[in-house]
Structures are given as C-alpha cells and as structure tokens.
Amino acid sequence: MNSKLTTFLFSLLAFFSSTVYSQEHLIKFATLAPEGSTWLNVMKEYDAAVRKESGGRLGFKIFSSGVAGDERDVLRKIRLGQFQSAGFTGVGLGEIAPKVRVLDSPFLFENYDEVDEVYKIFDKEFTQAFEENGFVLLGWAEVGFVYIFSKSPILEAEDVKKNKLWIWEGDPIAEAALKSLGVSPIPLPITDVLTSLQTGLINAVYTSPLAAIALQWFTRVKYMLNLPLADAAGAVVISKKKFDGLPPDLREMLVRNGRRYMEKLTRLSREDNRKSIETLKKNGVQIMAPPSAEKVREYLAVGQRARRMLVGRLYGEEFLARVEKAVLDFRAHQKHPK
Fold first, then answer.
1. For a tag on the chain, would you pick the N or C end, based on fewer CB atoms within 10 A?
2. Domains, the chain, ranges and CATH?
C-alpha cells in the first residue's frame, strides 16, 4: 500500500472516529428563549466555547423557542432521556429542587446587590439540592426583576383584583403571592399567554421587561406597575446521569464555562432589562408612577404572607429565616457600613 493511500485511510478513520466520539458527548438542550434573544446568543457562545476547547468532543444541540414544550414538558423529557439539559426559570428549577424557589419570593429583594449576596451565601446549598435530585448546576442565569403588565392601570394592590391575571400553570410561588393579594388568577402554560392576551382570556401578566419584548407580550398591554414583584431566578442544568457519564476533563470544562457564560448572561440581562423599559415606553407602554411608601409597605406585607404560605411546601421555616436574615443583614450593612 503506497504512503498516500495509507495517509488517506488513516485520515478517513480519524474523521469517522472523531465524529462518533463527538456524538457520544452531544448534549440535547432545550429552552423557551427565542432566537435572537440575549439568552440564546450567550448559550450559543457557551456551546462554541466548549466545542473549541474540547476539540469537537463536546457540544450542545440547542432546541429554542419552546419547540420542546413548556418547562414541565422539558423536565419530563429529560427524565425520559430524550433531552439532557435545559435552561429553566424558577418554575422548572422548583420542580427539581423546591427550596431554590425562595429566590423568586415576592418582595424579598430591593436591588441586585441583595440578590447577588444571597446567591453567594447559598450557592453550595442550592447546588447540593440539585445534585440530590439528579441534576448538576452549570450556571445561574436569572430572568431579572419581574413586573405586572396590564391593559388597564394598576395603582395599588386592590386594583390587581380587578384584572384577569395570568399565572404560570403549576407555579406555587406566583399562586401564593396572588392569593395573598386576594386574586383568583388564570393558570396557563407560558406558550399560551400571547394568544390568551389577544383573545381577552387574560388582560394582565407578570414578567421582566426584556421577556415582555422577547415574547411579544408588550404588544397586548398598555401599563406596567412600577414596583418589581420579585427577581425571577433562572439557571442552566444538566442531568446528573449525563454529566457523570462524561470524561472528567469534559465535566470540569462544562462547569467552568457554564459559570463563566451564565455570569455574562446575567450581566447582559440586567442591562437589557434596563434598556427594555425605555423600549417599552417608546412602544406605548405607560410606566406607572412608583407607589407611595404606604402602598409599598402593603406590598411588603403581601410578600411576607406569601413566603410563609410556602413553608413546608417548598422550604422549611429555618431555611426561610436564614435567607431573610441574610437579606436584612446585608441591607443594614449597606445603609450603615462600619
């Protein structure tokens, strides 16, 4: 056999070997994030980074825009082995590790500095909770502060009752918050929200400014309550079974890059949310005047009631107390530094 033919055959063998090997480490990933969104763009950067660093041995196959279904559908498919990874908001994360839903607690945080402090303090505890339930955390990627958007003005808590407010089907946090407000919400999958706004089945929703634009919900509302309900959590996770089946070097690479790119996504999302409020104004959405201090205290009381309604259902009293204390301690330190 001549040398050129030998070289060609070895090259051909190497090509097919690398193709099979890369398929062994292909991760099917699902997300509700639409094409062109910051969330999806950063996820694609994450995929490109691990493909490059692994020499093509590791990569994601991304299913975006909810084509794999709502978060509960995706979680079921991961457990059946049809997918291995996903980008979840708090709703999906809570189905895996209920205690992480404390991050979505209504009226718990006043600003992102407080959010970051809680993530820092409780990161190991949350990571362990995921692993105990069959998943590995690849990185936090919050949705951001969420607000109520409506077709009619909402000036105070009582006005919320007058609206046909959507609730994400199966979301205990939103259910508790709205129940504390005396609201009977309309539960729907997130994929049905835009159509339901168009038909009038609902006339109010809650989401972040960026998501309101990305999901096109802003085209069907006129007002935004200028008081954040909560900071909506988000994260990228992978099934522990898939993760444990990867070679050690690829596991380390996946987590390291996941943390790096999800931190980038969080920074960009916060900036995009800020810019999105200006975009909403330009498109005719009226940002209501901030509630008075008295009205804010009423909302804060709602948040406290809602958090306690979920003790024993999502988390324990002791855990909730530690989270609330961490926020209050940090807040006090920021206002009165030593």
1. C
2. 16-335 (3.40.190.170)
